Model the fold of this input.
Amino acid sequence: MPCTCARCLEHARTLGLAQRPTSRAAIRKAFKAAAKRWHPDRFENDVEKRREAEERFKEIQSAYRELSEHHENPVEWLVEDAFGETFASTGNTDALPIFFGDAPGCFAAPDFPRHAQRIIANHVRDLDSALAIIDLSGHGSPAGDLSQYILFTTQGIFVRDALHMVLLLWYEDLGEVRLIDRRKNGKLGWWERMIEKLSGTEQKYTLQIHRRNGSPFYSIGNETDDRVKKVIYNFLQQKRPHAHP
Done:
């Protein structure tokens, strides 16, 4: 049921709506359009514009979350939890936004499916908040298998690997992040060609994440496509300790 409070009307304007939305579908459509328009990665070569875009993107995510919640419950605001408190409630301006467009198996706050919420609840505690989770099972399902995953929170990274072991890296211990071109002289080696053939995907890059002491933390190859790796790369470059003097 639509809400007519001043707060919801303000959130609607943040999403670019002239009046309060009449359905959750309208809210989601407006959010996608606004998020695409103000995604920080569109302004990589303009430092000032990117800074503005990061702030706008935070406002857009907060507006989408709260407008969706209040649309369902116009009498009382819902208690915020690990899936939605990232920006507005904590006042955490260090929580950078992540946006994957329509990439399969990728989910960003606050739009987490139920099976992702269960995983997040196992990891996120206290002042930490979930930002995004990505399916690394290699199944490519739009719904996301999530038997293997990488979870980004405001404080760090959780990875569940092929051995079902959970790895953890806090951003304060984050080291070099590399986007490696797998093709030498434009060609893949025999092992890379075999992996590509088995997976049915053509990926140009491998993303390597290292700890601050130089040791490897995790590497993403064919588990997800190159555009997702680039989003992760740009996000982690901003989260490295040297990026926040």
Confidence is low (pLDDT under 50) at residues 75-93. The longest helix spans residues 47-72. Helices lie at 6-14, 24-37, 47-72, 114-123, 190-199, 226-239. The first strand starts at residue 106 and ends at 108.
